Amino acid sequence: MSARRPFPRDGRAFHRTLTAAGARLPDGRVSVRSPAVGLWRGAPAPGTLLMPGAHLGQIEALGVLHDLVLDDHAHGLVLGEGSASRLARQPVEHGTLLFTLDPSAGAVLAVEAEAEAGAGAAGLEFRAPSSGRFYLRPAPDKPPFVEAGAVIEEGQTVCLLEVMKTFHRISYGGPGLPKRARVTTVAVADGADVEVGDTLIALEDA
Q: Are the beta carbons of 108 and 76 closer than 8 angstroms?
C-alpha cells in the first residue's frame, strides 16, 4: 500500500448521515423511500433482516457522500421489490421507493433462527456494511485497529472503508453480535476491495 495515499488525520468521520423513513402499507408491509436526490449504492440484498438504524448504503448528493440509515421505527426482511439494486451508483429522487420490508414476526423469527444456526456452525462474523476498499490501519505507519487474539467491544473502530475517495471508520457491533468478542482471523487483506456483506473479521465469544 502506498504511503502517499491520504488518510484521515483524526477520528472524525468525513461523511454525513441521511435517514430513510419507513411507511406502513395497507397490507402490513413497510415501504422505505429515498430521503434525498442523488446516486445510491450499497443496497441491502433481498432477504436481509434489517433492524432500526441499519446501514442501507450511501447516497451521493451534490458531491457529498451520505451514509443512509433506516429510521428508529422500521424493521423487517428486505423483499425483492422496488428499485433496490447493487449497481455501483443508482439515480434516485426524493421519495423513490428503495425497497419494501416484511416486518411480520414469523418472517423475522425465521431469519433470526437461521442466522443463529449458521453462527453456531460457522462462528461469529463481522461483515462489511458497504462496498469499498478495506484498510486495517489508520495510516501506513500506524498499528492495525485489530489483530488476531485482540478483544474488541461494541463501538470500537475495526477498520476503514474507502468509498469514492472518502474514508469511513467502521465500528464493531450489530444484530447477533456480542458486545465483546475476540478476533480469531482478519479475513481481508489490507488494501483489498470488498462488497457489502463480505466477512471482514471472524470472531469468538470473549
A: yes
Domains in the chain: ranges and CATH: 16-109 (2.40.50.100), 123-205 (2.40.50.100)
Count of residues in the chain: 206
Please classify residue 8 by burial: count the beta carbons closer than 10 Å to its beta carbon, then call 0-12 exposed, 13-18 middle and 19+ buried.
middle
Ramachandran assignment for 54, one of left (phi > 0), alpha (psi -120 to 50 degrees), beta (any other): beta
Instruction: Quote the CA–CA distance of 181 and 150 in Å, as a whole number.
Output: 8
pTM attached to this predicted model: 0.49
| pLDDT tens sequence across 120-137 | 444 788 988 777 899 999
- Is residue 54 within 8 A of residue 70, CB to CB? The reply is yes
**Contact, 197 vs 127, CB < 8 A?**
yes
Helix or strand run (H / E) with residue 115: helix 105-122
Which of 202, 169, 162 has the alpha carbon at shortest distance from 1? 162
Alpha carbon distance, N-terminus to C-terminus of the chain: 32
State the Cα–Cα distance between residues 88 and 137, nearest whole angstrom. 25
For residue 153, list its beta bridge partners.
180
Residue 103: closest CA among 131, 71, 64? 71
Give the pLDDT band of residue 168 (cuts 50, 70, 90). confident
CA distance 16 to 59: 10
Mention every residue, 6+ apart, whose C-beta is less than 8 A from residue 105.
none
